[in-house]
Design goal:
A hairpin with a 4-residue loop joins β15 and β16. Among the domains are: 107 residues, Sandwich (Immunoglobulin-like); 93 residues, Golgi alpha-mannosidase II (Immunoglobulin-like). The strands form seven sheets. An eight-stranded parallel beta barrel has the order 10-11-14-17-18-19-20-21. It is α/β, with parallel strands linked by helices and 684 residues long. It is built from 21 helices and 30 strands. The protein is globular. The relative contact order is 0.09. α3 packs across α13 and α19 runs parallel beside α21. Helices cover 30% and strands 22% of the residues. Catalyzes the formation of the alpha-1,6-glucosidic linkages in glycogen by scission of a 1,4-alpha-linked oligosaccharide from growing alpha-1,4-glucan chains and the subsequent attachment of the oligosaccharide to the alpha-1,6 position. It catalyses: Transfers a segment of a (1->4)-alpha-D-glucan chain to a primary hydroxy group in a similar glucan chain. InterPro entries: A-amylase/branching_C (IPR006048), Branching_enzy (IPR037439), GH (IPR017853), GH13_cat_dom (IPR006047), Glyco_hydro_13_N (IPR004193), Glyco_hydro_b (IPR013780), Ig-like_fold (IPR013783), Ig_E-set (IPR014756). Pfam families: Alpha-amylase, Alpha-amylase_C, CBM_48. Its EC number is 2.4.1.18.
């Protein structure tokens, strides 16, 4: 190759998108990636021309719904309902009279009415109840406004109504010094549900969580709290994934100010707070939600069959509509600014990205990520969402729940990506459950284990987790329950030598450490699983006689000094502390396989200058186990899963230091490796 040819080749490579440069298999699809970039650029240009900026576009909630106008002294109520015939504001302020307060239609399909203080000051007050009566070709229905800030349920009729929420004294934030990069170098995420966080058989509250659970999360070392089920949903058992009121804080847990208090307290403790946001679908209920709001059969959602999710029994947004884009983007801005959330975990992104919603589809070809099955309108919306969040809060954390593995999802749009920071490593928990269900301990394939835990897209960060709320739902079991079975009820006294319990506790620790150290650049744990919470999750419903027994967390198990749960909690705390202190999950850190020994069931690797030694063997211990390490020197044990404080057998002396020696021309260490044990070593 001459100099001119070489120069041309370099220029051609440099002209490629960074995403394609890193993954040459994407070269045939670069036109699609560039088309996505161009469409995003064009849409933002249109928005800027009309609204001034993307962030100003995302202010629909300040126009729509019930908003107080301090200059004109009164409330504006506005609602987008282009196909409706008439709208009326109803509530206790006008005796629920469906004719008393009509709205006027604007040219853009937005209806409005002004309620002046001089007439309504004493009638439309804090806590007043209201709805909007929408008259369509199909008749009239009382509806909840689309951008409703608070919905409350009548305890007797179970009917939801909007509630005016305008406290005399606004909440006073004291978190001005909290900065995400100062406290979250790598995310250690604690996934939690407010309602089930109490031990009693009832629904927990924001205040209880702030006072009782935040100290636990801080003590455990987690630096991110991911909150589920915050957006108002009519059915408690939906886990918050069938949202009705996207701008309303779920009133079943308390008031908006109490949620703000929780987030403020989390920030005081150095914990970032992420919202589990559901923009992938919405509840189909018409009484509480957005479905068929203006009688057109579509409006916010696709019309006909395309507007219905076949598996979730819910409604699907039409992301091509500017008004839907604005509604959802305004929703993100609202949660960021009004409640100081530090980012989002976007639920159900696979369903958004593909017309088939990922149902029954095995993703094995790049064609599937760039062909006609992809909903390009959804791709554009997600790019807009990421762009908006970056504009409003540059350091915010964006996590995508996608099981398809779409290339570029977690790369910036200017590189050819969609713009998220992390994707959930959804294959990892599925692998652990499959292994425990279908394989004997003796048959674990460590090559397969290594592949599953390290198989992720280069340059795209992953949140690793051994189990989340999905694995604990009724019909399945937590990892602790799979490992311990009935021993979790019968043999958890700390002095009980039961072999099944010993095996379960040992593997619980190994599974978590292997997941954290190999699986990604962030780590997630579901509330209570850090100490091996014994049971699944099941919310009150008719099928369980409306019981809260499985919709709670038994903290007393972890706090009881006579039980073995304390060992799992201590190990989780030590594991997180080790990972944070060593910057283990630093995205720049590479993982190097050092040894996979199927005979002795030993796996050894190096990451960020730490050496990890796992023995999964059921009973074999090796006194002089020799293996290669990349760097010569003296090594000490940072973490030993077999420590007595972690419920182990204390077979290894942690005070011993290990010095490398030369053998076969490489640096080696010799260790006593005990069965079902994990060691983490650092060079001194």
């Amino acid at each position: 190759m001459n100099d001119d040819t070489a120069t041309t080749a370099v220029e051609e490579i440099s002209d490629l998108l960074p995403l394609v440069q890193q993954d040459p298999w994407l070269t045939p699809y670069e036109p699609v990636l560039r088309a996505r970039q161009a469409r995003l650029k064009q849409r933002i240009a249109e928005i800027q021309q009309q609204y001034g900026s993307l962030s100003k576009f995302a202010l629909a909630h300040q126009r729509l719904g019930l908003n107080y106008d301090a200059r004109r002294k009164g409330y504006w109520f506005r609602e987008w309902a282009p196909a409706a015939e008439a709208l009326f504001l109803i509530g206790d302020f006008n005796g629920w009279d469906r004719q008393a307060t009509p709205l006027q239609r604007g040219t853009d399909g937005v209806w409005e009415v002004f309620l002046a203080d001089k007439e309504y000051r004493d009638r439309l007050t804090h806590h007043s109840l209201f709805k909007v009566h929408v008259r369509t070709v199909q008749g009239g229905k009382d509806r909840l406004p689309a951008t409703l800030r608070r919905a409350v349920q009548n305890a007797e009729t179970h009917d939801y109504a909007g509630q005016v929420w305008r406290p005399e004294t606004p909440f006073e934030w004291t978190d001005q010094k909290f900065r995400i990069p100062n406290f979250v170098r790598e995310p250690f995420i604690y996934e939690a549900h407010i309602g089930m966080a109490t031990e009693e058989g009832r629904t927990g509250t924001y205040l209880e969580f702030a006072e009782q659970i935040l100290p636990r999360i801080q003590a455990d070392g987690y630096n991110c709290l991911q909150l589920m089920a915050i957006m108002e949903h009519p059915y408690y058992g939906s886990f918050g994934y069938h949202v009705a009121n996207f701008f309303a804080v779920s009133s079943r847990f308390g008031t908006p100010e109490e949620l703000k208090h929780l987030i403020n307290e989390a920030h005081k403790r150095g914990i970032a707070v992420l919202l589990d946001v559901v923009h992938s679908h919405a509840v189909k209920n018409e009484a509480e939600g957005l479905a068929n709001f203006d009688g057109s059969g579509g409006q916010y959602f696709h019309e006909g069959a395309r507007g219905n999710h076949p598996g979730w029994d819910s409604k699907l947004f039409d992301y091509s509509k500017p008004e839907v884009q604005q509604f959802l983007l305004s929703n993100l801005r609202y949660w960021l600014e009004e409640f100081h959330f530090d980012g989002f975990r976007f639920d159900g992104i696979t369903s958004m990205l593909y017309h088939h919603h990922g149902e029954g589809v095995a993703f094995g070809s790049y064609d599937q990520y760039f062909g006609p099955e992809v909903d390009e309108d959804a791709v554009l919306y997600l790019q807009l969402a990421a762009s908006l969040v970056r504009e409003l809060k540059r350091s915010a954390i964006l996590i995508a729940e996608d099981m398809s593995g779409m290339p570029g999802l977690c790369r910036p749009s200017e590189e050819g990506g969609v713009g998220f920071d992390y994707r959930l490593g959804m294959g990892i928990p599925d692998y652990w459950i499959k292994l425990l269900k279908h394989s004997r301990d003796e048959d674990w394939n460590l090559h397969e284990l290594w592949h599953v835990l390290t198989n992720r897209r280069r340059g795209e960060k992953t949140v690793a987790y051994a189990e989340s709320h999905d694995q604990a739902l009724v019909g399945d079991k937590t990892l602790a329950h799979w490992l311990l079975d009935k021993a979790i009820y019968e043999h958890m006294h700390k002095d009980d030598p039961d072999a099944i319990a010993a095996r379960g506790i040992a593997l619980h620790k190994l599974i978590r450490l292997a997941t954290l150290s190999l699986g990604g650049e962030a780590y997630l744990n579901f509330i209570g699983n850090e100490f091996g919470h014994p049971e699944w999750v099941d919310f009150p419903r008719q099928g369980n006689e409306w019981s809260y027994h499985f919709a709670r967390r038994q903290w007393s198990l972890a706090d009881n000094p006579d039980l073995k749960y304390q060992f799992l909690l201590r190990f989780d705390q030590a594991m997180i502390a080790m990972a944070k202190a060593t910057r283990l999950l630093n995205a720049a850190g590479t993982v190097q396989e050092l040894n996979i020994d199927s005979n002795n069931q030993v796996l050894i690797f190096e990451r960020n200058n730490l050496v990890f030694v796992f023995s999964f063997h059921v009973d074999r211990s090796v006194p002089d186990y020799r293996f290669h390490v990349p760097t010569a020197g003296r090594y000490r044990i940072l973490l030993n899963s077999d420590d007595a404080q972690f419920g182990g057998f204390q077979r290894i002396d942690n005070s011993v230091t290990y010095e490398t020696f030369e053998e076969d021309g490489v640096h080696k260490l010799s260790l006593y490796i005990t069965s079902r044990t994990a060691l983490v070593l650092a060079r001194m």
